[in-house]
Amino acid sequence: MEFIDIVLSISDGVLFGTTYALIGIGFTMIFGVMHKINLAYAATSIGGAYVSWAISTLVPLPAILVFLISAIAAGVIGWLVYLCCFRLVPLDTPLTTLLATVGMLIFIDEVVVHETDGMPQPYPAIFDDVFFEFGEFGLRGDLLFIFVLSFAAMLVLLYLLYRTRLGIATRAVAQQPMAAQLCGISIERTNASTFVITGMLGGLAGAMIGASVGVLSPLLTLPVTVKGLIVTVIGGLGSIPGAIIAGLMVGAFENLFLALRGVTERDMYVMLLLFLFLTFRPGGLFHRSALRD
Amino acid sequence: MLELKVLSKHFGGVRAVDDLSLAVEKGQIFGLIGPNGSGKSTTVNLICGVFPVTSGRVLLDGKDITRAQPHQTLAAGIARTFQNIRLFGQLTVWQNLWVAQNGLEDRQRENFLRRWMSGNRRARESVEELLEFSGLADKRDALARNLAFGEQRRLELARALSAKPKLLLLDEPAAGMNLEEVGALDDRLRKIQDRGVTILLVEHVMDLVMGVTDRIAVLNFGKKIAEGTPAEIQDDPAVQEAYLGGAGGRRAAAAG
């Protein structure tokens, strides 16, 4: 294996890793605000992508619109997940909400399997015929597009969180829920908006994962859930910058070992990375998070 | 304006607040004192809806708010500060006051569109005024957790005023302050009173309580053992017993 191949696989991995970063941000933000894990989050994201696929089979749409529909649909699904698993379920027993989200994960998966007979469905890609060459080095156009779109979404999110009243209120709830309530911030409204916003990020990520693989399959939910959780743990629970860096790291790691050791062994090494973090830095990259105090 | 009617809160077998009744008049600074563990903070938490009430009623201007959630008591016009300061540490001073503007907007049902069209002018001006009032104008961009202790107390007080409350609950606002800071707090409380805000002050620092309050109630083991003007309270033998009686006083009260 040539050195340039290693560089290429790492750079492709970093570009694709932005989708993992988005998924990780979703997990981490919900944890930051509610101190709860939403295991249905990756299913929400893939579910959004499926809705956009279903619409695109009815009306032919340009790929970018399909992505947008995926984001909006996942935002709606995110709100439904909040309603079913957090709003209507008592919050003071931690296991209840966790199990409710597991139920939701399986439910969304089952709906998808039922509607598609479990067959993978083709998903449109953008710029997959473009390739940028720099001598020996090169970048895939579709991955570069994913990278740019993901970072644009992250910038919008950070603007929202740090510059708007909604975002500042969200951070206030994450830091001091009781005091926030006594400042007139409705915790329920903040939680709901967090689920919608993270749902939209996830829908975008789900669409881009589908686009880069070329198909949507119900088999995507589990690995994306696992990767999202790994990114969240490595980044540090509740930390958005942590999730971004960890997402790129996991993407690069995964793609490097895909090239070095093949697809069957790839995930073993990602798990090994997680193991190293849990052993030597259990708090993740960023101990103190951006959201929490 | 604020009435507690035979209010009780039991934690298991412990009667943290036991058949407490009192009435705070509009415009008063009302002191609530008592030894540690006498139920003062619990009373504050019951009034603003942090804990559910075991029995009894809380009335604000005759309106029953016994079962109200914290954001609803705020909407009804009650704001508070905490014994252990609870600022939004990762937000700046300005942002701490900015998010608290939600409270007033909900109370006055400000029209979202009009608010947005004017660039939140009312809220921005209100934040500026509060920065000025609390003497934190030059710290506006500092993170709240990096403020000095006294500044954090001032910020929390300003944040509580954001919603223009009718009633302000202060849970030991002078805790950990030096004499000079207590003097400044005394001034500030009187200024707040001049704005027409009624204050319920829970405090251990007797210089402040005796100087600034119009009326005082004394709690011991969740029960009210005395109520009156500061002068009356200072001369009350039951109060002296509760504070100074030590073990004897405790036994007597426990037996009663």
How would you describe what is shown here?
- The complex is a heterodimer of chains A (293) and B (256).
- Chain A is mainly alpha-helical.
- Chain A has a single domain, classed as ABC transporter involved in vitamin B12 uptake, BtuC (Orthogonal Bundle).
- In chain A, 74% of the residues lie in helices and 4% in strands.
- Chain A is globular, with a radius of gyration of 19 Å.
- Chain B has 2 domains: 1-77 and 165-256, 3-Layer(aba) Sandwich (Rossmann fold), CATH 3.40.50; 87-164, no CATH class.
- In chain B, 43% of the residues lie in helices and 23% in strands.
- Chain B is built from 12 helices and 10 strands.
- Chain B has helices at 40-47, 70-76, 93-99, 101-107, 112-117, 121-134, 149-161, 179-194, 206-212, 230-235, 237-244, 246-255, and strands spanning 2-11, 14-24, 29-33, 55-60, 63-64, 78-80, 167-171, 198-202, 215-220, 223-228.
- In chain B, α2 (70-76) packs across α4, α6 packs antiparallel against α7 (149-161) and α11 crosses α12 (246-255).
- The longest helix of chain B is centred in the last third of the chain and has 16 residues, at 179-194.
- The relative contact order of chain B is 0.17.
- Mean pLDDT of chain B is 87; it is low at 247-256.
